């Protein structure tokens, strides 16, 4: 019997990149995108409703930025892991994301296999897999 898929919420303000990521992750059998939103406040709302295994988080977001949103997710849903996907980030920004609780930080130009690997690793670090 196959394990339940890893549930993922995508948080990305670039509509085209968000939709592309959703389509690409939709081709991965053990990953299920349960929501895709464009800002930090919406991310907190869907995490409260869905409690995903992993959140793929952009750094630069309207409303709440990636650091604020990552910290809030960690406080409210400690079993949900955050993997940051960012175009560019300075060392200080990466440090802030790690301090906020991100388990990995990748640049958006990574191959899909690397992103999926980070999602799988993050899911293994969260609460017991469902």
Q: Helix proportion of residues, in percent?
A: 40-55%
CATH class: Alpha Beta
Number of domains: 1
3D shape? globular
SS summary, helix count: 5
Biggest sheet, spatial arrangement of strands: 2-1-3-4-5
Determine the N-to-C terminus distance: 13 Å
Q: Structural class per helix/strand content?
A: alpha/beta
CATH topology: Rossmann fold
What does this structure look like?
- There is one protein chain.
- The protein has 130 residues and is α/β, with parallel strands linked by helices.
- The protein has a single domain (6-123), classed as 3-Layer(aba) Sandwich (Rossmann fold), CATH 3.40.50.
- Helices cover 44% and strands 21% of the residues.
- The protein contains five helices and five strands; from the N terminus they run E-H-E-H-E-H-E-H-E-H.
- The chain has a five-stranded parallel sheet with strand order 2-1-3-4-5, sandwiched between helices.
- The longest helix has 14 residues, at 112-125.
- It starts with 5 loop residues before the first strand and ends in a 5-residue tail after the last helix.
SSE diagram, text form:
Layout: E1 6-11, H1 15-25, E2 31-37, H2 40-50, E3 54-57, H3 66-76, E4 81-86, H4 91-100, E5 104-107, H5 112-125
Parallel strand pairs: 1-2, 1-3, 3-4, 4-5
In short:
The protein has helices at residues 15-25, 40-50, 66-76, 91-100, 112-125, and strands at residues 6-11, 31-37, 54-57, 81-86, 104-107. The protein is α/β, with parallel strands linked by helices and 130 residues long. A five-stranded parallel β-sheet has the order 2-1-3-4-5, with helices on both faces.
């Amino acid at each position: 019997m196959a394990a339940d898929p890893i549930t993922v919420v995508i948080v990305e303000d670039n509509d085209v990149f968000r939709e592309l990521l959703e389509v690409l992750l939709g081709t991965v059998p053990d990953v299920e995108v349960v929501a895709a939103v464009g800002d930090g406040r919406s991310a907190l709302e869907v995490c409260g409703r869905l409690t995903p295994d992993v959140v793929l988080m952009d750094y630069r977001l309207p409303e709440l930025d990636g650091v604020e949103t990552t910290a809030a997710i960690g406080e409210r849903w400690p079993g949900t892991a955050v993997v940051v996907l960012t175009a560019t980030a300075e060392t200080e920004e990466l440090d802030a994301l790690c301090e906020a609780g991100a388990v990995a930080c990748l640049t958006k130009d990574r191959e899909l296999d690397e992103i999926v690997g980070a999602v799988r690793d993050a899911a293994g670090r969260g609460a017991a897999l469902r």
